[in-house]
Amino acid sequence: MVKMLRILFNNLLAFPTTNNPKFWFVLLSGLIIVQACGPLKTTTLPSSTGKQGEIIVSLEDRYRGSIVEANIRSILGSEPPALPQPEPLFNYSVVPGSSFTGLLKAHRCIVMVETMQETKDGLLIQKNVWAKPQIVIQISGKTPKEIEAILLENKARIQEALLSFELNQLIKKHQVALDKKLQQTIKKSFGVELVIPKGFLLINKQEDFAWIREETPE
Predict the structure, then answer these.
(1) Which residues pair with 91 in a beta bridge?
(2) DSSP string, 102-170
(3) In 3D, which of 43, 41, 32 has the Cα closest to residue 4?
């Protein structure tokens, strides 16, 4: 379409005046062609699927049950500190690379482990590849040992990228409906700006303490 419009424009410039009948013939022909082609198409990414904290891991069959898979599980399933009971950092599902097609590519958080003979970046972090919002982390290497080294070296970076993505999505979700009155109360009392969505109540407030609790419907 763009190339066709450029040709049409160049042809119109060839006429020194609009009084030439050929000028109007070329212009009319171009308008008919544009109308027949229809509007320019734009690619819109579908909405991502999956819940917060859920990750799809695409793993080549050769790595199932290997040290590479063990490292992936260690990164995603490590326990956060200071919790009353042990919980994994993320909920994840490992699928064979051959099955990573279609709807799975629309998941919000994806980790891909692949063997590639030609690779520049052993760790590549991308946003909105197949859906939106989405984060895709690709770990690639020429050999299993190279991939294992990349995982060990970038454990903190992988965790930070996933946590940062989920935190930003959570903030965007809460910013849709904020309790500005409660936010102002906290800011005025403690000088701290917090993103507080509606549905939270100030249970107790003292000089150096505030207890804000979410009220869930019974």
Answers:
(1) 54
(2) GGGGGBSEEEEEEE-SS-S-SEEEEESSSSBS-EEEEEEESSHHHHHHHHHHTHHHHHHHHHHHHHHHH
(3) 32
Give the pairing of strands 109-115 and 135-141.
parallel
Cα distances (angstroms) measured from residue 86 to each of 12, 77, 118, 134, 199: 73, 10, 40, 27, 28
pTM of the model as a whole: 0.69
Q: Is the peptide bond before 39 cis (omega within 30 degrees of 0)?
A: no
pLDDT digits (tens, 9 = 90+) for 80-137: 877 788 888 999 999 999 899 989 999 999 999 998 877 667 899 999 999 999 999 9
pLDDT tens, residue by residue, 52-91 = 999 999 999 889 899 999 999 999 998 887 778 888 899 9
